[in-house]
Structures are given as structure tokens and as C-alpha cells.
Design goal:
Low-confidence stretches: 290-306
Largest sheet: 4 strands, mixed
Shape: globular
Number of helices: 18
Distance between the termini: 51 Å
Helix content: 25-40%
Number of strands: 10
């Protein structure tokens, strides 16, 4: 199916060092755009249902609690009746129509030289040899004035880039350009989530620097997700209560026409046909959808079950690796050993740690390159690194593969975080005093970590 680019392009530019991308910044900046151009009262969205499609980077990975919370923030700030957020599968961002403006953005930056203003000599000296964003941020924690000075030095660069973007048009519609939003506004907009779910903003501290574990442990937030949301590997959907409205839905009733409300349901997961090679069309999948239009049926039949999205390609056990990957691991078998372990990198798709191997200790330049890759968060199991980088991972690995046994070796003791060998989960691990683990230690000296979920699913601990 051929599609042509359409719509209006909005671009936000910011300082990557002290205005880093995160789910809450994206939600707040999107709220600003939608209120400016698609709201009649400058608060609520004119349309009551919002559909989002993103490229699936770390800030849009809908399985992360931080991303879920940011989408709930967007849902509440715009008083939506339903929000559907989906991300593309790995290496398939090209199917997202919004990606089609990238060629124009790249075009307007051609032959453009960028150079920030110099800051105080002592600050320049401190950041001169820092090769990662986190290194500069850490300096600013000790010297807060650096953040302000660096922001001032970046203003001409941002204005230069914005000026070029303003000249661009898509179908004769000019681009609209914004500057990054302040941290104070992000904090303020996020505060609607604890207020709406708990009635007391101070009961739980919500802030953009919190991690997924913090939000996962917030009972009121998890209860809201349980009652209003559908979460799958590639989609996160939110809908107001239709029957027995909760506290939030009583204060913010449906704005959609009642007849349309009765026909609303969550998008179904892709369902393969009998051949397991082709997926049903959307219309066919909708008829097979386990989400009934009747919310009472949905609550009684779905809430206690996990959504079955196991038919996605990345969830299938795969040992059918291409010849290049097999040959690469065979040729480098002398490097892919515990003695050659140098570091770890997290898979952005399954969030499992993968071991970095190198024939020699990593140089400062190699460590800087690896740190930048970690910050980008785009590595996926089995990915290849540049040939001349001097380090690698195993290529014959998929997201369904267990965490490598080498990960638990002595080489990584200083940087390793204990996680389940099957799923990579760091929470809810069975402790040594658990009867099942104690019994294994009677026969074995080593028992690999396993979480309660994997154990309940029938997995046996590795020894």
C-alpha cells in the first residue's frame, strides 16, 4: 500500500545535555502542541480520542512503566476518553508516516556549520575531555552554574537550527518550530497523575527522574492501569470507565457521544491465520478480539488474565540464525569466553543484559564509544557493532534467549546487577531462604537467579 506524506510538521529543538529526552518531556511537549493547535479552550483536546505512533525508541517503549505513566499524564492533561499509543517493531520505523519528514529535516541542515559560544575558561577545561553526556551532567551537579552557562552558549546554535527549520514546508504548509520546555513545567504537568489517582500529590513522589521500579511500586497508579489500560508489547491503550466509574472518571466524565462509546474497544493484538505465516487483517482480528464491547464482560474476563501477544515475531523461540551470524560466532569463539568479558549492554527490546567481549582491555576511546551506545539505548540482541570498534557481543542471540551464564561470572562482579536468567527481571527474585532455592543448594553449589513469575510459569532454576 502506497502512502503519501500529509499533515503539519512540528519540530522541537533543545539542548541534548541538560534537556535530555525522556517520556515525560515528550508528553509535556506534545501537550503544548496539541493545546496550541487542536484545543478550543487551551486545555482539553478538541477530539476525545488520540492515536499515537512512535518509532519505539527507549523513550517510547510502551512496556516501560515510565512511558506508561507519561501516557497517563497525557491522557489526563487533555481529558481524553481514549488514548492509543503504538510503537513500530524493531527496524520498522519506516512504516510510521511521521518519519517521512526526516528527509526534509536532513535537507535543511545540509551545509550548516554549528558552533556554540565559549563559556568560562574553567568550565571549558572541565568539559573539554568529557566524551559522554552523563559525564558533563555529573560535573553540573558539583558546579550548578555550569548548566546555566552551557545553556546560554547553546542558544545561538538552537536558534540557527530553528531558523533553518522555519524555512521548510510540507505540501506548502510551513513547519512550526518550538524550543525545549522547562523542567518546572514538566514537573507541574506530571503532578496531575498522583493527584488524579490518589487525591494527594504528596503521598507518592512523582518526578521525571523516577525509574520504572518507583512507578511499579505505586499501588494507586497500578490500580488505575489495571482498571483503565491494556498493555501489550507494542501498544498501550487507556480508556475511561464505562460502568461503575472510578473517582477520576466521575470527575472527568465521557465527552464522546454515548452511541459511539458503546462501540469502542481496545485495538486487538495481531493474530496469525492457520498457516502461522500471515496475519489476519484488522477487520478479521477485530472479530476475534477478546476485548468485548461490554465493559462488564471485559472486567470479568480480561483483568485477571494477561494479554496474549505471544504471536509477535520477537516472542517466538528462534535458533534459525543467518549464516553470517553463525560464522561470526564460530570465527570469534576464542574471544567469546569468560576471560574476554569487558562490559555489558542492555537490549532495548527485551531489557536483558548482554555481555561485551574484546580481545584486549577496552581503551578510553572504546569505552567512550560504548557509553554513547548505551545512552542511545538502541542496541538489540544479536546486533552487530562497527567492525573497527574492537568489541562485540554474541550474534546468535535473540530476545527470547536466556541471559548468558558468563554474565554471572566473576569478571562482571563490580558492575553486574542480579537479574533473572530467563527474563532479565531484577525484581521479585527468589531469595536463598526460599524453600525451592534452599533445596537446590543441598545438591548444587551454584543456583542462578530466577524470579517468582518465571518459576510460576514452570521454569526450573539453572544450576
Amino acid at each position: 500500500m502506497q502512502m503519501t506524506a500529509f499533515g503539519k510538521v512540528y519540530v522541537t529543538t533543545k539542548d541534548k545535555v541538560f534537556q535530555p529526552s525522556n517520556p515525560f518531556r515528550h508528553a509535556t511537549e506534545l501537550t503544548r502542541i496539541l493545546r496550541d493547535y487542536h484545543s478550543t479552550d487551551d486545555v482539553n483536546l478538541e477530539k476525545t480520542i488520540l492515536c499515537l505512533m512512535t518509532d519505539g525508541g527507549p523513550d517510547h517503549r510502551v512496556t516501560y512503566e515510565t512511558v506508561k505513566t507519561s501516557l497517563i499524564q497525557l491522557f489526563m492533561q487533555l481529558d481524553l476518553d481514549m488514548l492509543i499509543a503504538i510503537r513500530t517493531a524493531p527496524n520498522n520505523s519506516w512504516v510510521n508516516p511521521a518519519e517521512r519528514c526526516m528527509s526534509l529535516l536532513n535537507l535543511c541542515l545540509q551545509h550548516c556549520a554549528l558552533d556554540r559560544k565559549e563559556i568560562r575558561p574553567d568550565f571549558e577545561t572541565k568539559i573539554r575531555h568529557k566524551s559522554s553526556l552523563n559525564a558533563i551532567r555529573n560535573i553540573a551537579k558539583v558546579s550548578p552554574a555550569l548548566k546555566t552557562a552551557f545553556g546560554e552558549s547553546m542558544k545561538p546554535v538552537i536558534e540557527n537550527v530553528n531558523d533553518r527549520f522555519r524555512r521548510m514546508k510540507l505540501k506548502n504548509v510551513p513547519f512550526t518550530v518550538y524550543k525545549g520546555i522547562s523542567d518546572e513545567i514538566i514537573d507541574d504537568q506530571l503532578s496531575i497523575v498522583p493527584i488524579s489517582t490518589q487525591g494527594d500529590a504528596d503521598e507518592t513522589v512523582f518526578n521525571p527522574t523516577a525509574n520504572s521500579k518507583d512507578f511499579r511500586e505505586c499501588k494507586a497508579l497500578q490500580e488505575f492501569i489495571k482498571m483503565h489500560c491494556s498493555s501489550t508489547h507494542y501498544a498501550f491503550q487507556i480508556m475511561k470507565c464505562r460502568e461503575d466509574p472510578c473517582r477520576y472518571c466521575c470527575i472527568n466524565p465521557w465527552r464522546t457521544d454515548e452511541q459511539r462509546v458503546e462501540k469502542l474497544s481496545f485495538l486487538p493484538c495481531p493474530i496469525p491465520d492457520e498457516s502461522e505465516q500471515v496475519y489476519h487483517s484488522f477487520e478479521e482480528a477485530s472479530t476475534l478480539n477478546l476485548f468485548s464491547f461490554n465493559m462488564t464482560y471485559y472486567k470479568t474476563n480480561f483483568l485477571e488474565k494477561k494479554v496474549d501477544d505471544s504471536k509477535r515475531p520477537s516472542a517466538k523461540n528462534s535458533s534459525d540464525f543467518d549464516d553470517f551470524a553463525v560464522e561470526f560466532d564460530r570465527k570469534n569463539r576464542d574471544i567469546l569466553k569468560s576471560q574476554k568479558i569487558r562490559d555489558i549492554i542492555m537490549c532495548g527490546e527485551c531489557n536483558k543484559p548482554r555481555v561485551i567481549y574484546s580481545a584486549k582491555k577496552l581503551s578510553d576511546e572504546q569505552e567512550s564509544l560504548l557509553n554513547r551506545m548505551k545512552e542511545e539505548g538502541n542496541f538489540e540482541c544479536g546486533d552487530s557493532f562497527p567492525e573497527d570498534c574492537g568489541f562485540t557481543t554474541k550474534r546468535c542471540l535473540s530476545c527470547t534467549a536466556e541471559v548468558e551464564v558468563n554474565y554471572y561470572g566473576a569478571s562482571l562482579r563490580g558492575i553486574r546487577v542480579t537479574c533473572c536468567i530467563f527474563c532479565g527481571n531484577q525484581d521479585d527474585l527468589l531469595v536463598d531462604t526460599d524453600p525451592y532455592i534452599e533445596k537446590l543448594y543441598e545438591s548444587f553449589s551454584v543456583v542462578r537467579p530466577i524470579c517468582s513469575t518465571c518459576r510460576e510459569n514452570g521454569q526450573e532454576a539453572k544450576t
